[in-house]
Amino acid sequence: MKRLLVAAALLFALAGCDSPSRTVDSARKQLSAYQAAPDAEKQAAIEQSLAKLDAQVEQLEAKGDRAQADIFRRQAVSLRTDFQAAKMAQAINSASKAIQGIGEAFKDVGKSFSETFKGSDTNDR
């Protein structure tokens, strides 16, 4: 009897670890970390969590628990929307930095030309 209770408790604990609500919580934390400091590793972790959530929603559907499936499906959509916005913000930030870098390069080239012409003006006299 004691073994049965321990086994049941273990199964319950394992089932809780793989619950859609835990997956949603995990994905939210990963998304916050990605928004603070985006990188490929964090992006892959979020994508993996979203794929896991999709599988869990499908399992709920298969069990006939449509109400729970709908709740977690909406949360998955919300997470995906936030993730896409974070990726877009990161892309815009990267593009902005690239444009600033190009601007600085043109500025340096302009200074170089200016110094070259100033030097040639003094040599002509």
Q: Mind telling me the C-alpha Rg?
A: 27 Å
Low-confidence stretches: 4-16
**Helix share bin:** over 70%
The proportion of residues in beta strands is under 5%
Helix run count: 4
Query: What is the number of strand segments?
Result: 0
The succession of helices and strands, N to C, reads HHHH
Would you mind describing this structure in some detail?
By secondary structure, the chain is mainly α. The chain is built from 4 helices and no strands. It has helices at 2-17, 20-36, 40-63, 66-124.
List the helices and strands and how they pair.
Layout: H1 2-17, H2 20-36, H3 40-63, H4 66-124
Helix pairs in contact: 2-3, 2-4, 3-4
At a glance:
By secondary structure, this protein is mostly helical.
Characteristic key phrases:
single chain; 125 residues; mainly alpha; 4 helices
